[in-house]
Amino acid sequence: xxxxxxxxxxxxxxxxxxxxxxxxxxxxxxxxxxxxxxxxxxxxxxxxxxxxxxxxxxxxxxxxxxxxxxxxxxxxxxxxxxx
Length: 83
Known about the structure:
Layout: H1 3-13, H2 17-28, H3 35-48, H4 55-68, H5 74-81
Helix pairs in contact: 2-3, 3-4
């Protein structure tokens, strides 16, 4: 992909692509059985989506993701957040 494509995404979302790539890398290499890693990913997705994640919702998401132990993608977490 070329730089102009990424610049268009950045201008539309207001999110630097470096942050998107860092989050994607964290998700790709995360141990979804580790509650702390899952919690950090949920918090990062909330920050990138500019959405406050209440503590009870974060706890529910962590519980759901840790119990399944399966990796998810950013879109799945955003869907869970109601974005």
